[in-house]
Amino acid sequence: MAEQEQGAPYRSGRRTLVRVAVPVAVVAAVAAGVGLVPALASDSGPDLPSVTAEQLVAKALGSDTEALSGTVQVKADLGVPSQLLGAAGGLAGQGGAGPSASGGAQPEAKLAELLGGQHTLQVAVDGPDRQRIGLVDNLAGYELVHDGANVWAWDSSSNEAVHLTAPQGAGKHSDRSVPPVTPQDAAKQFLAFASGTTTVAVDGTMKVAGRDAYRLTLTPKGQGSTIARVRIAVDAEHGVPLSVQATAVSGGPVLDVHYSKVSFDRPAASTFSFTPPKGAKVTEHRADGQLAGHDAPNGKPFGKQAGGAPDVQVTGEGWTTVVSTRLPVGEVPGRDGGHGSKGAAQNPLSLVKAFGKPVGGGTLIGTKVVNVLVTDDGRVFAGAVTLPVLQHAAGVK
Fold this sequence. Notes:
Layout: E1 8-9, H1 26-34, H2 53-61, E2 67-77, H3 82-97, H4 107-113, E3 116-126, E4 130-137, E5 140-147, E6 150-155, E7 160-165, H5 183-194, E8 198-208, E9 211-220, E10 227-235, E11 241-248, E12 253-263, E13 281-286, E14 313-315, E15 322-326, H6 348-355, E16 357-359, E17 362-366, E18 371-375, E19 379-383, H7 387-394
Parallel strand pairs: 7-13
Antiparallel strand pairs: 1-8, 2-3, 2-12, 3-4, 4-5, 5-6, 6-7, 8-9, 9-10, 10-11, 11-12, 14-15, 15-19, 16-17, 17-18, 18-19
Helix pairs in contact: 3-4
């Protein structure tokens, strides 16, 4: 087995984190950007030519492979209470769609569900404008289909669909496109997110979905991060990341995303066509987040809180990046498993205090990876960082 290790700081522009409309959903958004993960390498990997860390990073980021399909296994163990994930999903669905939309079919709401337990996804990709992701859990199905200017999301359990249409002149891509749930999207986010605060090394070879791959290990420098390391398996032939694994400082893997099956043949064009089933309730949206044919409430586009709450802000860099916003005013919708009756509204501050503990400057919601500090004046600071980092960002002790 050819194996070479070379510590090397890797510098890259930091990708802006996905905007979220409500602070509890920051838990989902930050965790999704912090780490999605693979199966561990076997004792004896394939014999491959030696490469440096810089060469392997360039291979992963520079891969020109645009077409593939396969099965992705996702396992998450972030330590986030199921009630909080349910609330985050409900908030994300409402924030991204507006009050009259079908929250259960919203991609933002479904993404929150992937942050707990095990899930199986069927994935097909044909370039930047065609993706299809299918999720099957507990005999219920969910489809997310992106074909050019159209994005469809359909939830079989409720037979509700959301149709997003980009207006003319909006460009190829929308901020509300298919979420980054594949190993290659997660790996690229990690490599960009790492900036110059990481030691990068080639750490042997492995097999993923029957394919030869190099293993790239990212180790945070300094202190303050709750992530100990991230391992990315890079396909030896195509340079496509096949798996991503993150381990917490507290010990053990926290997220595992990897292909169990993968093909680099181009999917048929019909794969990306979608027609909602008969009787489905369809909600139409434009790419700016507004309901088709409707003006947004208070003159604000959907995706921002009614009442003009500020957008999420990003401070720090690399592994100690912190996102901040403010708690929403009033009540937010409940979900199954939350406090109170099914669908009952919840006060954001009450929800925070129910899952958090008092600390200097406010209340802390802590998990294996993501920590969220809510200050006494209603500000929210979150990241895969320790409490002192959050307190420093908030200017409290």
